[in-house]
Structures are given as C-alpha cells and as structure tokens.
Design a protein that fits this description.
Layout lengths: L1 H27 L7 H8 L3 H7 L3 H19 L3 H5 L4 H12 L2 H9 L4 H14 L7 H23 L6 H12 L4 H20 L1
Length: 201
C-alpha cells in the first residue's frame, strides 16, 4: 500500500513539474514554438516521463484545468452548494476561485486555447448537477449557463478586472435567478408526468 501511495505521489510531482514548466514557457515563448525538449528541460524530467503522463501540450493544459475544477468542487461549502449552484454565493465563490488562476487563463488566451476554460466549466456543470446521464435538452441548459459564465469571465479578465467582483456576480445572478436550472428541471419533470397522464386518457 505504501508503495502505491509513493508511486502516485511521485507521478503527481512529475506532472506538477511538467505543468509548471509549460506555464513558465508560455510567458516567454509562442505556444506553437514550445517543444517537448523545452518542457522536459525546464521541468527536469525525461522525455519518457513526459510521455508516460501526457500526449501533447494541450493535454497538459486540459489536465491542469481538470485539477482546478476538482479542487474547486472539493472546497465547496457543504451539500447546499451542490443542490443549487446558481445562488449568488456560489457564483461569487466560483468567480473568486477562477480569479486565482488569472495568469493561467491569460496564458490560454494568448495561446488561442481559451476554450479549455469553457471545457472545464462544462465538465463542472455536468458533475455538480449529476447530469452526465441526463437528456440532451437538460445538458444544453447547462451549456448555455457555462457559456455565459465563460464569456463574462473572459471579458472581465481581459478588462483587468476593473469592475468589482461582487458587481459581476450580481449581474450574473440577476440574469439566472428567473431562469434557474433546478426550476427548469422540475418543470421538465412535471411536463413529462403530464404527458404520461395524458397518454392514459
């Protein structure tokens, strides 16, 4: 058991070194000009270690985004955050969390990889609402919301976060409070029940 934990810890450390190396290089070089050799030299790992963990530079960036989302989900304040992710407090918490990774987001934008942020938001929405096995219509509602969050957040970051974060959270909440996913979900379930009752007539 100790060997397994030690191996996992060693692999996590290697991945962390590779991620950090790529982000450092993205500050000084064009993304397309960064080679695997550049990354492994900066990270202090072998090419074999690199390919044991990643297929490409994009894979590194997506893995980092997944880690951010997992850490965020783990820090949520109890089950009420999972029961309704469109409250003002949850929106504000999410913006503050993403704000911590401003440099990462700007690196993605510079490299024309900003859609990775959207990928992460989509993934989180599906996870927090347990919608992975739900209908396509329910997923589209979530994609609509994550897309709006992505667009607002990216513009706010690009504008150097001049507006207070509470103001941004209030704008988002003002738009979603009458169009909440859980309300729509309940409505869809009621519509399905009504349709079933109609069939029995």
């Amino acid at each position: 058991m100790k060997t397994s934990v030690s191996h996992k810890s060693s692999r996590d450390f290697t991945k962390s070194c590779i991620m950090e190396a790529l982000l450092q290089l993205m500050h000084s070089k064009d993304y397309n000009d960064i080679s695997i050799t550049d990354i492994t030299s900066r990270a202090g790992v072998s090419r074999m270690a690199y390919y044991r963990n990643y297929r490409s530079k994009d894979h590194i960036l997506m893995d980092y985004m997944c880690q951010i989302i997992k850490e965020y989900a783990a820090e949520l304040d109890g089950p009420k955050f999972f029961s309704d992710f469109q409250t003002y407090d949850h929106i504000l918490w999410g913006l503050k969390y993403l704000q911590k990774y401003k440099d990462y987001v700007l690196c993605l934008k510079k490299a024309n990889r900003a859609e990775i942020v959207l990928y992460g938001l989509d993934l989180y929405m599906l996870h927090v609402t347990k919608s992975l096995e739900k209908s396509s219509l329910e997923k589209y509602e979530l994609y609509y919301y994550s897309g709006a969050l992505y667009n607002i957040f990216m513009h706010w970051i690009e504008d150097n976060m001049q507006e207070d974060i509470t103001v941004i959270a209030s704008i988002i909440y003002g738009h979603v409070q009458h169009h909440r996913f859980h309300d729509l979900q309940t409505q869809m379930e009621n519509d399905e029940k009504s349709a079933c009752n109609f069939d029995k007539l």
